[in-house]
Write a structure and sequence with these properties.
Elements: E1 19-23, E2 28-31, E3 55-58, E4 63-67, H1 95-100, E5 105-106, E6 113-115, E7 121-123, E8 131-133, E9 136-142, E10 152-158, E11 161-162, E12 166-168, E13 172-179, E14 182-186, E15 189-193, E16 198-201, E17 206-211, E18 215-222, E19 228-229, E20 246-247, E21 255-257, E22 260-266, E23 276-282, E24 285-286, E25 295-302, E26 304-308, E27 312-317, E28 321-324, E29 331-334, E30 340-347
Parallel strand pairs: 5-27
Antiparallel strand pairs: 1-4, 2-3, 6-7, 7-28, 8-9, 9-10, 10-18, 11-17, 12-17, 12-19, 13-16, 13-18, 14-15, 14-17, 16-20, 21-22, 22-23, 23-30, 24-29, 25-28, 25-30, 26-27, 26-29
The protein binds FE2/S2 (inorganic) cluster.
FE2/S2 (inorganic) cluster (FES) binds near residues 37, 44 and 45.
Length: about 350
């Protein structure tokens, strides 16, 4: 819908990206719903003579937020990612953007890691594991030492058999099964798992892995405190408010975002208030440069492509992981005709469609 086609009863698309706004706790704001204000995203009175009225809200805390400027959100005043669906295709990098970034430096790997702008990086993990206990071994792929402030990503490998019980005392663990099958017990509850299953373990709950075959798991731990204990047995401390902890891929639940899709796996519906985990598929394309307000870990499940930041780029392929700090500008290009499949986990929780 162009501005020329806008009728009096339609909101104007003031911008196709949300406005980054810093709110102050307790302050009252008037969000423009008509899209006609010259002071986006706030009202300047231009709605006069239209059926629209501004939306008043009071900030609950001092924070940076993304307020909707396309006026298509269903979560006003906040962006819900609706701007991605204004056209039939996801916003791709423009010719000008591609030209401006044509000198981006190809970063060589050092120990499997290519460090991009702002501490973002692409890592090809090696097969070794730093730590072992019983049938379980693990390696930290993203952590505080890498510049992550809240999120960490651990790769667990479980040999066939039953692992020791592991408890993250103060941190939630959001698990994603990359390969293998078996069961994961969370305290006294057990869940069958297989490839592309997401699972939530709340802080203070112990879990153990019963592997039918070798299982590889990516675990986003948040906040990263390093506080881990190994109880002899579970103490029955399962949070029954969230009885179902497992989510599998279900195309009927996928959100379509123009010509790509994503499905939320783990989120607050199954108890995860800090971290959101999703799975997505990207067609042969290069996304327009954008940012998120969250810290993010991405695991490439299939396909290959290129990760671009302001002045750097690094190729990515299946098995690689990507770390993006909060507000780091980036663009993921898929160079694989079969598309690129990925798992993402980010803090704070929200929608992966929200970008600016
Ligand atoms: S100017 Fe848009 S609601 Fe007031």
């Amino acid at each position: 819908m162009s501005k020329e086609e806008t009728k009096k009863d339609d909101p104007v698309i003031a911008a196709t990206k949300p406005c980054l706004s810093k709110l102050q706790e307790g302050k009252r704001y008037m969000w423009c719903t008509c899209g006609r204000s010259k002071k986006q995203p706030f009202c300047d009175g231009s709605h006069a003579g239209t059926p629209f009225k501004p939306l008043m809200f009071v900030a609950e805390k001092t924070e940076e937020v993304l307020l909707c400027a396309c006026k298509q959100t269903r979560s006003g005043p906040y962006c819900d990612g609706a701007h991605n669906n204004l056209q039939d295709t996801y916003e791709e990098a423009s010719a000008e953007e591609i030209s401006a970034m044509s000198n981006a430096k190809l970063i060589e790997r050092d120990g499997g890691k290519a460090v991009l702008d702002g501490g973002a990086y692409v890592l090809t993990p090696d097969a070794t594991h730093d730590e072992h206990k019983g049938t379980l071994s693990w390696q930290t792929l993203i952590g505080a030492k890498d510049g992550a402030k809240h999120l960490s990503l651990l790769r667990f490998h479980a040999e066939p058999g039953t692992s020791p019980w592991r408890r993250q005392d103060d941190s939630d663990a959001v698990l994603f099964i990359v390969s293998g099958t078996g069961r994961i017990s969370i305290e006294d509850q057990s869940f069958d798992v297989g490839p592309e299953t997401g699972l939530f373990v709340a802080a203070g709950e112990a879990f153990c892995i019963h592997a039918d075959m070798p299982i590889t798991i990516m675990a986003a731990i948040c906040p990263e405190t390093g506080q881990v204990s190994w109880p002899e047995r579970p103490d029955g401390n399962f949070d029954t408010n969230f009885a179902e902890r497992r989510v599998g891929v279900d195309h009927d639940k996928a959100e379509v975002m123009a010509d790509r899709f994503f499905q939320i796996l783990v989120d607050e519906q199954i108890g995860s208030k800090e971290v959101t985990q999703f799975i997505g598929e990207v067609p042969l394309s290069r996304a327009a440069f954008h940012r998120h307000l969250y810290e993010e870990a991405i695991v490439i499940l299939s396909g290959e492509g290129m990760m671009w930041t302001e002045t750097c780029r690094a190729p990515v392929k299946v098995g690689d992981i990507i770390f993006l700090s909060r507000r780091q500008g980036h663009s993921l290009e898929c160079t694989d005709p079969k598309g690129l499949r990925l798992m993402g986990a980010f803090y704070p929780a929200g929608s992966p469609a929200i970008n600016y």
